[in-house]
Specification:
Helices cover about 20% and strands about 40% of the residues. A hairpin with a 4-residue loop joins strand 5 and strand 6. It has a four-stranded antiparallel β-sheet with strand order 1-2-3-4, covered by helices on one side. Strands 5-6-7 form a three-stranded antiparallel β-sheet, with helices on one face. The protein has a two-stranded antiparallel ribbon with strand order 8-9. The chain has about 140 residues and is an alpha+beta fold.
Length: about 140
Amino acid sequence: MKMSELLFKVENMAQYIELYDDEVHVQMPLAIMQVIKIKDITDIEFRRANFVMSGKVVIKYRDNGVNETAYYPFNFMFNEGMVGLMGKLNELLEQLKGKKEDVLIKEVIKIRCLGCGALMDEHSQVCPVCGRPQV
């Protein structure tokens, strides 16, 4: 089993965010550490409020087929580190998106059944609808 590589870490006392090559670990004060698989992330919002030197990260992801949203506020101690971490996370998501698209692009050719006209896979020997052999 491959060990995950720590790519980036932002920390301040009792809270931290660690970015690995395949997941994000978030530890907020007085909370259970949350682990989100990068492949499950569907959207990220990074909002920085410069006038008060704080902001928040919103990570939307799917967990066992259910849409989830995680909110992580941060203060001035995290500000610059969060910019770097979000940049690196976006790079990973773009790489993963490219891999997903490579895997998902597939040409599918359908033919019509000689008997009932239903669409079926071009290599089918028998129609899945009417059962007629395709010779």
